[in-house]
Automatic annotation (TrEMBL):
Higher taxonomy: Bacteria, Candidatus Amesiibacteriota
EC number: 3.5.1.88
Top EC category: hydrolase
Catalytic activity, reaction form: N-terminal N-formyl-L-methionyl-[peptide] + H2O = N-terminal L-methionyl-[peptide] + formate
Keyword terms, alphabetized: Hydrolase, Iron, Metal-binding, Protein biosynthesis
Chloroplast as UniProt keyword: no
Positions that bind Fe cation: C98, H168, H172
Active site: E169
Gene: def
Source species: Candidatus Amesbacteria bacterium RIFCSPLOWO2_01_FULL_48_25
GO MF term set: metal ion binding; peptide deformylase activity
Name by which UniProt lists this protein: Peptide deformylase
Family to which the UniProt record says this protein belongs: Belongs to the polypeptide deformylase family.
Length: 202
């Protein structure tokens, strides 16, 4: 059974630490994150950060469409934001939600595109699901044997919905929740109950 950390768990407010090396523990974490994201159904997940499974590491994965292969971002850094913004109006545009605060959505404004410097997996060997013991050990990550995984350095530009997801997940790595952006932008927050949305206050 997969579990997603919910607000107000304090791990969601921590600044995640960098990944020192791509060892078997990190590969286990990534595989577990993929399983969690793919099996999230209510709501369906489009992105997941390591703090959302209780592990404060600078890793997130994205899957903008249900049939997309999850893309892995390790030690990501947004090095450029476009001046053009994604600004939802009415029922059009992207209403942002979060698997750690299910059922809540808001028309958050984000940059239309971002340039991201990050590491990702060149290839990945399947590992067993992350056990409770492995999760505990991963909290004490100090690096591992070299050569246990292949990573490549990339710098890529993402636009539209993928850029929106990346900015949301980067916030998670910095201890920022989308409800902080709601307050910052004085945006409306809605709670979905079936097909009906009700405006709520924080």
């Amino acid at each position: 059974m997969t579990t997603i950390v919910q607000v107000p768990d304090p791990v969601l407010r921590q600044t995640a630490r960098s990944v020192a090396s791509l060892d078997s523990r990190v590969l286990n974490i990534i595989n577990y994150m993929k399983k969690v994201l793919i099996t999230a159904k209510n709501p369906v997940g489009v992105g997941l950060a390591a703090p959302q499974i209780g592990i404060s590491l600078r890793i997130f994965i994205t899957r903008p469409k249900p049939d997309d292969i999850p893309q892995v971002f390790i030690n990501p850094e947004i090095i450029k934001y476009s001046q053009r913004r994604q600004l939802p109006h009415g029922k059009s545009g992207t209403y942002e939600g979060c698997l750690s605060l299910p059922g809540h959505y808001s028309p958050i404004t984000r940059a239309m595109s971002v340039t991201v410097k990050y590491q990702t997996l060149h290839s990945i060997t399947p590992h067993p699901p992350l056990t409770t013991k492995a999760r505990a050990e991963s909290e004490n990550l100090r690096g591992g044997a070299e050569g246990e995984g292949d990573i490549i350095e990339k710098t890529s530009v993402f636009s539209g919905f993928p850029a929106h997801i990346i900015q949301h997940e980067m916030d998670h790595l910095n201890g920022i929740l989308f409800i902080d952006r709601v307050l910052e932008q004085n945006a409306k927050l809605y709670k979905a109950e079936g097909d009906t949305w009700h405006e709520v206050t924080i």
